[in-house]
Amino acid sequence: MLRTNLSTRPFYNIRAVQAVLGACVAIVILFTMFNVISLVRLAASQRSLGARAVQAQNDATKLRADAVRVRAQVDSKELEVVSGNAREAKTIIEMRAFSWGDLLAQFEKTLPENVRITAVQPRIEKDGRFVIGMRVEARQVGDLEKFLDDLEMTGAFHNVLTTDEQATDDGLLEAVIEGVYIPQTGSAPGEKPVAAGTANHGGAASE
Questions:
Q1: Is the whole-model pTM more than 0.85?
Q2: Which one, of 110, 118, 132, 120, lies nearest residue 170 by Cα?
Q3: Residue 68 scores a pLDDT above 60
Q4: Any idea what the Cα angle at residue 68 is, between residues 66 and 74, rounded to 5°?
Q5: Helix (H) or strand (E) holding 166
Q6: Could you tell me which of 11, 119, 121, 122 has the fewest CB atoms within 10 Å of its CB?
Q7: What's the rounded Cα separation, in Å, for the pair 105 and 160?
C-alpha cells in the first residue's frame, strides 16, 4: 500500500533562479537599447550624408553651368592675344636676366686654341629651354669636335650639334653650332645681366 504525504514538496533555490533570470533579462534589455541607439544614430547619419550628397550635386551642377557661361563670354581671339603677350613678356624677362658673363666663362674654359667664336645668339624656345647658337671657325675638324665634347662635359650644355659646316677662303672650317644651355640661377655679385643679342667672342684661331 503506497502512502504519500501531500503536505510536503521538493526544495528549490528560488532566489538564485530569480537572480539568474533577472540578470538575463537585464542583459537582453541592455543589448536591445544599444541596438536601438545604434539604429537611430545610423539613420541620422544616413540622412545627413544624403543631404550633403544632394547639396554637393547641386553645387557641382551650378559650377558647371557657371563654367559654360564664362567660356561662352570669353573671346577666343582675345584670349589668344593675351596668352601671346604673356609669353612674350615672360621671354623678355628671362632674356633680360640672362648672364653673358656666365656664358662667356663657359666658353673660356672649353674653347680650344685652334677654334674661335665669331658670333653668339641665345634664344628661348616655346618650351622654355635656352638654346645657344654659335658661329665658330676651326683649324681642323678634330678641333671643332673637341670643342663640342668639352661643352657637353661642363654639364651646362646639352645636345650640342653642328647645323652647318663649310670651308672658308682662308682654309678654315666655319660651322654653326646649337645646343641647349642651362644658365646659372643668378649672375655673379656685382654683375649686371645684359639683354640678349648677338655677341662676338674674342678667341682667335691659330693661323
A1: no
A2: 118
A3: yes
A4: 100
A5: strand 157-167
A6: 11
A7: 17
